[in-house]
């Protein structure tokens, strides 16, 4: 099962979620409240070390690996 790190207001997250649904893939959202995103949580050193060095979403977890950047994620899903 895929895990999609996301906040609801992100258009890039929406694109990945739509692709997962269209491809009928099993996935779950790891929700980040917008207030955390806007408050700088993803840009914190701890979040960058633990979740994504780039400090952004979407992040798609696949078999223990984390894929970033919506275009790269969509290309991965299309294969």
Polypeptide structure, described:
- By secondary structure, the protein is of the alpha+beta class.
- Helix content is 41%, strand content 23%.
- The protein is built from 4 helices and 4 strands; from the N terminus they run E-H-E-H-H-E-E-H.
- The chain has a 4-stranded mixed β-sheet with strand order 2-1-3-4, with helices on one face.
Name the poorly predicted regions. none
Specify the overall morphology.
globular
Beginning-to-end CA distance, first to last residue: 17 Å
| Rg value | 12 Å
- What class do helices, strands and sheet pairing give? alpha+beta
Number of helices: 4
How many DSSP E strands?
4
Question: What integer is the average pLDDT?
Answer: 94
Strand content: 15-25%
Tell me about the largest β-sheet. Answer: 4 strands, mixed
Helix content: 40-55%
Q: What key attributes describe this structure?
A:
4 strands, alpha+beta, four-stranded mixed β-sheet, 79 residues, single chain, 4 helices, 41% helix
Topology:
Blueprint: E1 2-6, H1 11-22, E2 27-31, H2 34-38, H3 45-50, E3 59-62, E4 65-68, H4 70-78
Helix pairs in contact: 1-4
In short:
The chain is α+β, with helices and mostly antiparallel strands and 79 residues long.
